[in-house]
């Protein structure tokens, strides 16, 4: 276990008494946890280096998976180097803010020299403008709404800093109305989609990554202007399989202790499947959701798949 890992875990332990399910405060109409909203001016003012890479997703859409792929590509598939620290230390979470002494994303970024890899869940309109002004590379990962919602629901159950998710049927309503942390899934996936060509955003789909991980790893590699051998690509595909990542203490968020993530309620890495929504939606709920989805997505044609 690295020194950074100890420091991060210990900081969370020390902040344990201050951990609570933080309320949501809207920033330009997007609900964000109060600690983020209260630090918004500093987040919005962040100036990335042109060499920085941003990984953007709606929560629980394949963020950690993509972070691990990118880190392994940058280190030529060296698994040991990529175990130097847990994911949130290796790849800082831009907007995250927590009670002291847990370092914020901005705190961690100040300690890193460019080029840096940065994570965000912010919708397109809330990404600090410096990323676009400096023409930073951005990888966006989108996951079909039904599976994304199921994963987010279980995450909100175990993440004791997010608002209480309540019962499943009520959670569906909150998801459809964009009343969850980081706002509307619909606005999120559409915002990056319509800007993807103008902003040179690599727009990936979780379902494509599950169906053919090697192809998508190669797409990420080319977008990053890297070149690694076929052997290394095969190794990265293996190292980033769901099974291997679930067992990797530097990627499975076991570094976050129970006052924040209660893995006994639901593991951070739960199933990683396409189509798990069929185990949660009743036929009536699915019909209601599909009708609302069609209305909310009528202005775009994003090729989502709910099964593969």
UniProtKB/TrEMBL annotation:
Stated EC number for the protein is: 2.8.2.-
From the Swiss-Prot or TrEMBL record, state where the protein is found.
Cytoplasm
Q: Indicate the secretion signal residues.
A: none
Please give the family membership noted in the entry: Belongs to the sulfotransferase 1 family.
GO annotation terms (biological process): catecholamine metabolic process; xenobiotic metabolic process
Per UniProt, what is one Pfam family of this protein? Sulfotransfer_1
The answer to keyword Cytoplasm applying to this record is yes
**Has the keyword Iron-sulfur been applied to this entry?**
no
UniProt-listed SUPFAM superfamilies: P-loop containing nucleoside triphosphate hydrolases
Q: Where is the Sulfotransferase domain?
A: 50-300
What is one cellular component GO term in this UniProt entry?
Answer: cytoplasm
Citing just one GO molecular function, the answer is: sulfotransferase activity
* Keyword entries, A-Z: Catecholamine metabolism, Cytoplasm, Transferase
The protein here is known as Sulfotransferase
UniProt xrefs under InterPro entries:
P-loop_NTPase (IPR027417), Sulfotransferase_dom (IPR000863)
Q: What class of enzyme is it?
A: transferase
User: What's the superkingdom here?
Assistant: Eukaryota
